[in-house]
Amino acid sequence: MHNILSDPIYAGAYAFRRTKSTVSVVDGRKRVRHGVRRPPTEWDVPLQEQHAAYISWEQFESNQRTIADNATGYGSAVTNGAVRQGEVLLAGLLGCGHCGSKLHVHYNGNIGRYQCNGVRTTNGTSNCISIGSTGIDAAASTEALRVLRPLGIDAAIKAIASQSHETSATQRQLELALRQARFEAAHARRQYDAVDPANRLVASEL
Is the full-model pTM beyond 0.90? Predict the structure, then answer.
């Protein structure tokens, strides 16, 4: 699925050399990484509108930004992150202030702790920080409610007005349906009264 969404063909475009190789030195040895994705601005041959597209190029670029922001791997603290499953509120959204890596969540029962594994992964040392989630989640919840409170009042007023409008529209539709039913019932009664009582077949149909 990721390959489909990140392929420019999905947006009707053709691109050549979308990946590259990088060279680094790790522990005195040369390390080559192949298949490192290039940003679209560095593609060698980007050609748009080459064939029928599923989505527009603007939507494709928006999707790429969303995918990049959803990164939660090591060293991706520059991205916004994506909400993850679990009891804690900020899983996948916090970064370490020391090394810049994403904070990971470790659970002991239902209680989680935010921990940074960045330094231990790269340098073999201990974790930068390890913080209980209770205080951080409570502070984040309080701040979110403080910011949203004025918007919540306005949203509640709009919701009430919208609900009242929908209720009025529904009531109007029911009144029209009732009026139509009464008209049809009166019309059927007039037809029944007008038929010759001796014509039992017509009377039974009406």
Answer: no
